Amino acid sequence: DSSDITEVENYTKNKYAEPNKELFGVAEGKNVIKIHLESFQSFLIDYKLHGEEVTPFLNSLVHDESKNFTYFDNFFHQTAQGKTADAELIMDTSLYPLPQGAAFVTKGNNTYQALPAILGQSKEDYTSAVFHGDNKSFWNRDEIYKEFGVDRFFDSSYYDMNEENVINYGLKDKPFFKQSIPMLESLEEPFYAHMMTLTNHHPYLISPDEASIEPANTGDPSVDRYFQTARYLDESLKQFFDDLKEAGLYKDSVIMIYGDHYGISENHNQAMKQITGEKITDFKHTQLQRVPFFIKIPGVDGKGVDHEYSGQVDVMPTLLHLLGINSQDYIQFGTDMFSKGHKDYVVFRDGDYITPEYTVVGGQFFDNDTGEKIEPTEKMKEKQKTVRHELELSDEVLYGDLLRFYTPNENWEDVDTSQFSYGKNSH
Ligand code: GP9
Ligand code: MN
């Protein structure tokens, strides 16, 4: 009931980190373009296969001399069984995913105070849109997006899905980005646009004429092809950036790029040993849960590589502060990545977590420098309790639909789901 939400509120308000004053509001009213890199793990960045860069375009953003982007190399996905849907949930609500199933499906009719609605109710009156070349009902998106306050959902019904354009789950990334440009241009500004790619998805299928790098040769077919679909994704991004520039939508937009979850599961540790040159221990496997996070803020020089430890849950408060919106009003488990008070422990769904100094795997503690098992100090045990408590509180929010009982501020209006309908033919 409503007393439970008070406990959660006390916790999250206490965890809250004040914005970095230099950055608060610097991107007020700017368009936001958030790009989802399907199944993309950070080990691909700067990785060389057969002596070639796999992702030259993304690498160029990391090493960008013109300092457009900041790249977080200690950013982690926090997803569980809901995979893509969990990543979307975490990034747009700053809640943790559920221990079982996908909240997108089982909690698709909960009340949320999610980014699309918050930006839509801000004084800048953002238009929110999701772009994805798959059927609108996959992962129950067409239901939960209404609760999130997503104004427009450009699903596969908006795209030319002819046979040549489609592989695996849906639209190939190159035609996806190409065809998205006019839709993006049609949106009322400012907009919050979420571009969701798909081709770099297990089992990493690509037609031979579109593969521009040879597969790896571990003998594990999906691992071997992973580099080819990642290269294709990288090329599609380059094309998208060129098209954004041509459309005049690049320079003045906030652009965020993130990886949703791992692409190579622990079932492929043998192949990954060949790829990384190291035995994939449980400790090492946790290190591989890094996914990229890039951000470009108009008018602010990128920092190159930022080594701050952070996770998907931290993105929402970070963005709100850049846009000049006070995030303290909302129930959020993450903290602003640019804040001096950013909390640099990253919680995983199973109760494990990682800090700049040590990693907890299966409840056991490992030193980050040596990878050796260590005895936890009292402080470390305390932190472990905090992590578990946070997960419990987040679960209470979702299982109890507790945001029903929460009003962020006096201006907040409950999301009216009847305003939204998705799919080309319903407009
Ligand atoms: C499907 C796509 C894939 O629409 O988002 O989801 P995943 O299998 O990665 O969860
Ligand atoms: Mn995914």
Tags for this model:
12 helices; eight-stranded mixed beta sheet; binds (2R)-2,3-dihydroxypropyl phosphate; five-stranded antiparallel beta sheet; single chain
Short account of what is shown:
This protein has 427 residues and is α/β, with parallel strands linked by helices.
Note down, in words, how this protein is organized.
Keywords: Cell membrane, Manganese, Membrane, Metal-binding, Transmembrane, Transmembrane helix. Substrate binds at residue 201. It is found in: Cell membrane. The active site is at residue 84. The protein has 427 residues and is an alpha/beta fold. Helices cover 32% and strands 15% of the residues. It is built from twelve helices and 19 strands. The strands form five sheets. An eight-stranded mixed beta sheet has the order 7-6-10-1-11-12-4-13, sandwiched between helices. The site of (2R)-2,3-dihydroxypropyl phosphate has 8 residues, from helix 3.
Present the secondary structure layout.
Blueprint (H helix, E strand, L loop, with lengths): L1 H14 L16 E6 L10 E2 L2 E2 L2 H7 L6 E4 L2 E2 L6 H11 L9 H4 L8 H7 L5 E6 L8 H8 L3 E3 L11 E2 L2 E2 L1 H14 L4 E6 L24 H26 L7 E6 L9 H8 L5 H6 L5 E4 L7 E3 L3 E2 L3 H8 L23 E2 L5 E2 L3 E4 L2 E4 L5 E2 L3 H22 L28
Parallel strand pairs: 1-10, 1-11, 4-13, 5-14, 6-7, 6-10
Antiparallel strand pairs: 2-3, 4-12, 8-9, 11-12, 15-16, 16-17, 17-18, 18-19
The structure holds (2R)-2,3-dihydroxypropyl phosphate and manganese (II) ion.
